[in-house]
Amino acid sequence: MLFQPLKVGPLELRNRVICGAHFTMFTEPNPVWGEPGFYGRRYGRYLADRARGGVAAVIAGKTAVAPNTAYKMPNNANGWDEACIPHYEELTSQVHEHGALAFLRLTHSGAMMLGNWSKQVAVGPSPSPDYFETPREMDDGDIRAAIDAHVTCAVNAKKGGFDGIEIQSAHGYLLHQFLSPKFNYRTDEYGGSIENRMRFGMQIVDAAREAVGDTVAVGIRLTGDDEQSQGLSGLTAGDCAEVAAAYEQSGLVDFLNVSVGIGGVGIMRTNYAPHLFGVYAAHKVREAVRDTPVFTVHRILMPDEAEGIIERGEADGITLVRALIADPEWVNKAREGRDDEIRRCPAEVEACIASHPAVAACAVVGTADAKWGEIVVAHVVTRDGVDVTPDELDRHCRERLAAYKRPRQFEFVERL
Ligand SMILES: Cc1cc2nc3c(=O)[nH]c(=O)nc-3n(C[C@H](O)[C@H](O)[C@H](O)COP(=O)(O)O)c2cc1C
């Protein structure tokens, strides 16, 4: 069933495997100020490898929707400036060449923003102390501006050839901050009941939908459970299913991509978390909606695991991230029954995002014939224009991997 097509709004996915949004640092720097840069040729090349490897769609991202949310990690991407459109075209054309669809993730980080870097005040629904910087509570003008920013970016995405957009409402970012009672203490029409807390997200989706029309798929990365047990306030899986049903009833969304957890390492849990640990939340959402396709994620590493989820009716689509960083050919190998040739990702997050200024991304994976995590291969991609010798990269990776007790090897797969 993993290789059955799936209708998503106006589009058809050729199978059920989607390359999920993940920050890779593959931006083209802005020629004037560097940060934030653009998603274009290099990121397109990286995503096109996954498209050629058989995925139905790639979700590029995240793109920042406004200047006051664009500084979080090195190599942020700008989605609001029209100058991004020709870069997008270079990205989407490479993905389309291999028969896959290209989606763009739009993100407003809200309070999860480094104001000391951007020199702008971080904003959020309430002055919640859960972040590096306590955000300023957003007023009506800020809310309007954030809605308009999503619209601008959605239109730019369409002009740049993206087939769909995915609006971030999970992982502790702004829409999630509004949705969750953990971060939202407002007493106006944006706080209190679930209906009020989802008003902001609904307004964004409504405005973006209208702006892109019905030829572009519009979906949401929805939090499926804040996992705030032990008496802490937060969204339960039941609350999230209610939110999902309300989005479906609005008729505005073409898909719901359900993740769990609030942010940081919690969203890409390592070997202490069981495989498929977030699927229960997507399943709950799927039970609450009628026919909106639901995608799931989290430590889904091998084809039999993905197939089982679809067969059991727990979700309609599988979002893979680390497994596809490790092996872009995952889907083709799965379809051809070559599971044992898949370069296995132990999903340990030892080096998915590297720290050296010249290293843009680095995945640590097990080789096909190794036991989980015994031998690793580093996929290293250098930033444009950074003069780094192979020896320097070699040293960096050795130092990084030396922190881990088990024997490690690595090889450079490619430089983009
Ligand atoms: C290197 C890396 C970068 C990521 N960046 C983002 C991001 O920018 N936005 C987001 O919503 N999730 C991001 N994620 C989380 C993934 O979308 C996904 O939810 C998570 O990795 C679990 O899926 P997996 O087990 O298939 O890796 C990132 C994950 C990785 C490994």
Small molecules bound in the structure, each named once: flavin mononucleotide
Helix content: 25-40%
Strand order of the largest sheet: 3-6-7-10-11-12-13-14
Based on helices, strands and strand pairing, what is the structural class? alpha/beta
CATH architecture of the largest domain: Alpha-Beta Barrel
Estimate the mean pLDDT confidence: 87
Helical run tally: 13
Low-confidence stretches: 366-377
Annotated CATH homologous superfamily of the largest domain: Aldolase class I
Instruction: Report the biggest beta sheet as strand number plus sense, adding barrel if it closes.
Output: 8 strands, parallel, barrel
- Number of discrete domains: 2
CATH topology of the largest domain: TIM Barrel
Q: Could you tell me the radius of gyration in angstroms?
A: 20 Å
Approximate shape: globular
In terms of DSSP E residues, the strand content is: 15-25%
Q: Which helices and strands appear, and what pairs or packs with what?
A:
Layout: E1 6-8, E2 11-13, E3 17-19, E4 28-30, E5 34-38, H1 41-52, E6 57-64, H2 84-96, E7 101-107, H3 115-118, E8 123-124, E9 136-137, H4 140-159, E10 164-169, H5 174-179, H6 194-197, H7 199-212, E11 217-223, H8 237-250, E12 255-259, H9 279-288, E13 294-296, H10 303-311, E14 317-320, H11 322-326, H12 330-335, E15 359-361, E16 364-365, E17 377-378, E18 381-382, H13 390-402
Parallel strand pairs: 3-6, 3-14, 6-7, 7-10, 8-9, 10-11, 11-12, 12-13, 13-14
Antiparallel strand pairs: 1-2, 4-5, 15-18, 16-17
Bound molecules: flavin mononucleotide (FMN).
